[in-house]
Amino acid sequence: MKTKDISIAGWRELTQKKEEFSKIIRLLVEFDEKTGRYLKYNDPETHFMRRAIAVADPAKLRVFLRDLGGFVYSIVAELRSTAGVTSTAWIHEDGIRQEREGAETTHPVHSIVCVTDLYSESCECIPEETGVSPVTLDLMADRES
Predict the structure, then answer these.
(1) 118, part of any domain
(2) Could you give the CA distance from residue 5 to residue 48 in angstroms, rounded to a whole number?
(3) Residue 92 sits in which domain range?
(4) Which of 65, 117, 122, 124 is the most exposed place for a label (fewest CB within 10 A)?
(5) Considering the domain boundaries, does residue 78 fall inside one?
(6) Per-residue confidence at 77, pLDDT binned at 50, 70, 90?
(7) What is the mean pLDDT of the chain?
């Protein structure tokens, strides 16, 4: 499989607080399961990939984020296990940060760690030698166009 040429300059890797990221994804997965929302996805199987990401050992997880503006992020996650590599991608709208920015009052929900917090405080530029799987690189390239 030939990996597409991409510029990873716009992407950052979450290198710290992966447990916090997993908590965010776990809450969203649980909500989607309770409401049945995942059944309305174009590709419902991506829900189960995110479920795997949510419960994964953070040491086996790589998360890449690209800021699309307006509290919206393109996310590509890669999970390595003895069974192989699973990669998945989705668009995440950070409603927590959006609410925090627009609120005139404080509320306990505003203290929840959100994806924007992780992006700005716990991500780093991706090094030249990424070690990222070809499938993950292809997902990142697909998000470039």
Answers:
(1) yes
(2) 28
(3) 8-144
(4) 124
(5) yes
(6) very high
(7) 87
